[in-house]
Amino acid sequence: MAEKDDKNKMNRRDFLRDGMRTVTALTIGGVTGLIAGKSGSGSGDTIWQIDPHKCVQCESCAKNCVLTRSAVKCVHAFDVCGYCKLCGGYYQPDTKILDTAAENQLCPTGAIKRTFIENPYYEYTIDEELCIGCAKCVKGCGAFGNGSLYLQVRHDRCLNCNECAIAQNCPADAFRRVPADKPYILKGKQKKK
After folding, report:
1. How far is CA 21 from each of CA 28, 45, 61, 65, 153, rounded to the nearest angstrom?
2. Which domain holds residue 153?
């Protein structure tokens, strides 16, 4: 009986993980469709994007975007995530109590939502409306986790300025022009699709 319960728990976790992958893929596909409609069908169209492998989480994206709330948002590669109880991207490094109190959270705007799945697994999702692109969660996730959080330009918000203020101030030269028909530089299994 206990073995059957263990199999059911594993199936629920797999079901939730696969569901989040589907939602992420549909979201990226929808945004890609919007961009294709916005930028025309010319093969020479390019747009700005962040290479997550070059980004150094300098907070420049939050400070230098011409928009009040940066077009750069945190993205979660769910297939890379460990669904940890102690998430380096969610909690302050010196947190003593693992609860959702604001003083324990790394994100200054509360954009990361933590949801209990089953002991000891939690799911972390990003509320992009609250995200300012400061990269504090990305830095924490990379330092104390597996790097499943990363920054990307969201093209439904980006003005695609010719001289992007963030790109000009990026110390790692992580901003680059990419083809409009392939607007995202992804991590994990996402990049294989």
Report:
1. 11, 28, 26, 29, 19
2. 2-192
Q: What is the mean pLDDT of the chain?
A: 83
* Paired tokens of 123: 């799911």
CB atoms within 10 A of CB 174: 22
Torsion of the alpha carbons at 97, 101, 107 and 109, rounded to the nearest 10: -170
Q: Which of 1-10, 68-77, 80-89 has the highest mean pLDDT?
A: 68-77
Q: Of the candidates 93, 73, 71, 89, which has an alpha carbon nearest to the alpha carbon of residue 81?
A: 89
| Contact criterion met (CB below 8 Å) for 73 and 134 | no
Residue 32 near residue 146 (C-beta atoms within 8 A): no
Secondary structure (3-state) at 1: coil
Q: What is the pLDDT of residues 3-62, one digit of tens each?
A: 555 545 556 666 566 656 655 555 555 554 444 444 443 447 999 999 999 999 999 999
- Residue 184 and residue 125: Cα distance in Å, rounded? 19
Give the count of domains, the chain: 1
For residues 149 and 4, give the distance between their C-alpha atoms in angstroms, rounded to a whole number.
33
Amino acid at 185: I
